[in-house]
User: Which sequence fits this backbone?
């Protein structure tokens, strides 16, 4: 008999990174079309920024997600960078089902390389201070270098693109099966 247990080692100021190993290809669809996605990642980690470690492995995919709470009301711009293909999704609220893709990398970039492709940058997004928004980054690594980085700029953050810090995030807590 399996019981459901909440993973409770995460919380405020963290981003949940979930990894699926041993998946070939470089397209995000190679990850999202895998039989183990989205419910059975190989491993996961809670990180203090919306930036994965680089040089982790080859042939894997990652989903990073959190609830983002902006510090001030206003227009924010988002960027995604990574190696290989990446997508950035943002919801109009804290519901994952309402998320829309706002930026993508259809190739690869260096770590935190924000200006290689025009599509890496979102249009300005109007956000309300104190409201939580579901945000998700997807990346599919083939071979060579690898990373997933999500940056932003806006009120209370500044005009320069910076990696989203954990202080603006609350980790998306997932459930996992365990034996009783």
Assistant:
């Amino acid at each position: 008999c399996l019981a459901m247990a909440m993973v409770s080692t995460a919380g405020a100021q963290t981003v949940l990174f979930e990894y699926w190993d041993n998946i070939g290809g470089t397209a995000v669809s190679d990850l999202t079309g895998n039989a183990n996605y989205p419910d059975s990642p190989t491993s996961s980690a809670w990180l203090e920024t919306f930036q994965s470690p680089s040089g982790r492995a080859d042939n894997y995919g990652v989903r990073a997600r959190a609830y983002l709470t902006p510090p001030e009301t206003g227009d924010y711009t988002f960027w995604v960078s990574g190696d290989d293909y990446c997508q950035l999704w943002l919801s109009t609220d804290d519901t994952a089902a309402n998320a829309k893709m706002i930026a993508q990398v259809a190739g690869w970039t260096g770590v935190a390389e924000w200006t290689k492709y025009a599509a890496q940058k979102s249009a300005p997004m109007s956000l309300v201070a104190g409201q939580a928004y579901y945000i998700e980054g997807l990346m599919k690594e083939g071979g060579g270098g690898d990373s997933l980085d999500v940056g932003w700029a806006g009120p209370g953050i500044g005009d320069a693109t910076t990696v989203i810090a954990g202080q603006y995030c609350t980790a998306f807590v997932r459930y996992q099966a365990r034996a009783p």
